[in-house]
Amino acid sequence: MAKIVGLTLSERVVAGLVVDHKLLGELRSFPEAHDDEYALVELPAEGIADVMCEQVLAAAGKERALAGVGVGVPGLVRNGVVEEAPNLPQLKGTRVAEMLETRLRAEGIEAPVTLINDADGFAAGIAASLGKLDTVIRVWTLGVGIGYGRYPLTAGVWEGGHTVVTLDDKENYCGCGGRGHLEGIMGHRAMRLRFLDMEPEEVFETAKTGDARCMDFKKLWHKALAAATATSIHLRGPGRFFLAGFNVRFVDLPLLKDYLQQMVKMSPLQSYSVEIIADDRETRVIGAAVSAEKAEG
Length: 297
Ligand SMILES: [Zn+2]
Hints:
Blueprint (H helix, E strand, L loop, with lengths): L2 E7 L3 E7 L2 E9 L14 H16 L7 E6 L2 E3 L2 E4 L11 H11 L6 E5 H13 L6 E6 L3 E6 L30 H5 L1 H7 L5 H9 L3 H25 L3 E5 L8 H11 L9 E4 L4 H16 L1
Parallel strand pairs: 1-4, 4-7, 8-10, 10-11
Antiparallel strand pairs: 1-2, 2-3, 5-6, 8-9
Helix pairs in contact: 1-2, 3-9, 6-7, 7-8
The protein binds zinc ion.
The site of zinc ion has 6 residues, from loops.
């Protein structure tokens, strides 16, 4: 059975040894939960590659015959290169796959490294956890920004969080600077920019009291997600959509489905579903490994 190390890179590097789409042993993390959460963010690209190598070695244990290593990175990745990484800007333009392969070779591990977008890795992990590796899975992650992941992995770019969902000229809160984007409405950072006097939690609480401004925003927030999902359905067909991330707490599923139903009318496109799923490190690590396995064929 092929042994693959899955690794995800965000505020932490988390790695685990995956065999037959299941975790074997413990997850490894740097920094560890109780350590300085900025330890990684402050490292240069070379230092991050060193940490990734250490964590792969720790996850592999005595195992040296790895079939591959899958690495999930938040950002736009292509051909083993990080082309854009807003939260880890030092990685922009870095040949991460090559850097890690070189380091692992020096430690006696000859394994191809597959670099993927972390949200795509998460989608692969969800597919594996459901035992549905033959179906199309899409996931929205609602956090500081808005992530969009797809499984199965195919070549190309899909920055779903930047789907244009409004033509309103005033909608310019997206982290990328683009106008009318989903993330500019739904992203945590964008919500704080919009409501300078209220935290996002307060906005959704106040909406319950009937406050017009907050109620309008709650509707806009759900319409935006429905619009981006409808666009994905119109471009890629129906299927299962998952919602995850710390801001799924704001999701009113019946309201979202109502808007979606108003936006998707063609009968062959009706077989879609929207579900909320827990976001955990294990699913993401397994997904990174599954993506590496599929990429290696
Ligand atoms: Zn954007």
